[in-house]
Write the structure tokens for this entry.
Amino acid sequence: MDRRRLALVVIGVVAVAAIGWWFLLRSAAPPAPDLASAVETASAAQTGSTVATSTTVTHSTTSSAYETTTTTQAPVATTAPTTTTAVAVATTAPTTTTAVAVATTAPTTTTAVAAASTAGTWAVDTDIGSFSDFTSTWVGYRVQEVLGNGIGSATAVGRTPLVVGSVVLTDDAIEAVEVTADLRGLRSDKVYRDGKVRSALHTDDHPTATFALLGPVTLGDLDGDGVSVDAVVPGTITINGMTGPVEVTLAATLVGDVVTVVGSFPIVFADHGIEAPGASIVVSVEDHGIVEFQLFLTR
């Protein structure tokens, strides 16, 4: 084999290895959830709301319409005594104008009441952000893998946007939580991994995972600009049909009309009858992992 052919063979091998690394081994794991990034998404989702609020001012133009009517009637009143009665009727128009002024103050009072408290029931909102860049609501996992042939370790991250649930808040506490994620929607950066994960979780028999709060937890006041709270929240997680206790570390804040929550908690696979998934290129997978989430809640 001449040098030219040898060089081509070497280049081919390197190219195949590079392509294999790019598609099979390279880790493109996204970062852990971050409250600051989630706040940006929640803020951007509400930028159009200010326009809707400003349209309330259009009520004031109604009063100018009444004034115009009164002005046009004035010359008519000087033409004939009969129209004097019309002028008398026109003088009742200011009374109507007063009613408009009172109505204008009503939205201000309503807005103040709505912004005064987070107390109430909040539902998981999946319309905020986009799952393509993980700016939306999602629940997922983070697990360390050990790869063969001396390649080293990689971080496996999978997430599902199929999340439903509700949270009941008082002014300074969480009263109740139930959030359910459809595990059949789990996606990672490796297609071969996703099938293994769904098989390990037995999603054909137990397609969902559910978190429920054990009891009320004091959070602190969420109301106010830029106020965020950190808390450790006890609850239960049901995966693969098996329920166990967990302690969730979370951070939350109110952004306009959206409660934004990020957090995580550790999980041991054996506690839920899960065998760590494997693949031909994966030597081993840790027997535990982290469940992560990002939630947007609206009334």
